[in-house]
TrEMBL record:
Protein name: Polygalacturonase
UniProt keyword list: Cell wall, Cell wall biogenesis/degradation, Glycosidase, Hydrolase, Secreted
Annotated catalytic residues: 151
Main location: secreted
Gene Ontology MF annotations: polygalacturonase activity
Length: 266
């Protein structure tokens, strides 16, 4: 078990030991099985000092059967938590805070090749996606997350430069968006071969700062299939404007959704 009791604060970018660093991660756990992190303190990455180096605060690579509970991360220079090549992880009661204008400060970024990951009962306020789910990820469950500020919860972007990608069994439920730029999204590059299936957005409430609340933007080459959007109520904060949805080549079902997800009614 790893316990974080006090506050861990990154060095200033003027500190000699850090000044020339090219590290892309501040703290990394690699290829650990059965890791258990319990935190009552917080990580402060001094984000504004390190935005140019784009260092992630905490990364899990190749870990399995791991748990993280109670962590607070503030002022990330890039992603608060990055996950790659991991399986069977539970991350709960997590708090992320970064300035609204901070660049690329995703809360959770599931970078690639991860499965059976649960994100539960967490508060995420960032300058980018609260949660981003990327290539070769499957069986990702997100429940009870409060997102805002930030860009919402996104599957993708996927398929840049024509690369193939596959994502399936992504389930987001009982979450709230508070003044986010966007809401629920699937993002792909249109000319790419991206397979996305079995994605659920259910029980989502809140407000967005723009107007597009739901965006299911699937590849022109390969349709998204078995998409479920259900029990949604998202409203725009733009004066006298209603929130709306947009979709391309997405197929599935929708019910009790505000805004109406017309692309799934074809």
């Amino acid at each position: 078990m790893v316990q974080i009791i006090g506050n861990i604060i990154a060095a200033s970018n003027t500190a000699p030991v850090w000044k020339e660093t090219q590290s892309k991660v501040w703290i990394t756990f690699s290829k650990v099985k059965g890791l258990n992190i319990s935190a009552k303190g917080k990580l402060d990455a001094r984000g504004a000092d390190w935005w140019k180096t784009c260092s992630n605060t905490l990364a899990f690579h190749g870990c399995s059967s791991f748990r993280v509970h109670g962590l607070t991360s503030v002022n990330s220079a890039r992603n608060h938590i990055s996950i790659s090549g991991c399986s069977h992880g539970t991350l709960s009661s997590i708090t992320f805070t970064a300035p609204d204008e901070s660049p690329n400060t995703d809360g959770f970024n599931i970078i690639a090749t991860s499965n059976n990951i649960e994100i539960l009962d967490s508060n995420i306020g960032t300058g980018d996606d609260c949660i981003a789910i990327n290539n070769d990820s499957s069986y990702i469950n997100v429940t009870g997350v409060r997102c805002g500020p930030g860009h919402g919860i996104s599957v993708g972007s996927l398929g840049k430069n024509g690369e193939e990608a596959r994502v399936e069994e992504i389930h987001v439920k009982n979450c709230s968006f508070i003044g986010t730029d966007n809401g629920a999204r699937i993002k792909t590059w249109q000319t790419s071969a991206v397979w996305i299936s079995d994605v659920t957005f259910r029980g989502i409430r809140g407000t967005i700062r723009k107007e597009k609340a739901i965006n299911l933007h699937c590849s022109e080459k390969v349709a998204c299939t078995n998409i479920l959007v259900e029990d949604i109520n998202l409203n725009s904060l733009v004066s006298n404007k209603k929130a709306y949805s947009s979709g391309t080549n997405a197929y599935g079902r929708t019910s009790r959704s505000t805004p109406l997800v017309e692309c799934l009614l074809k």
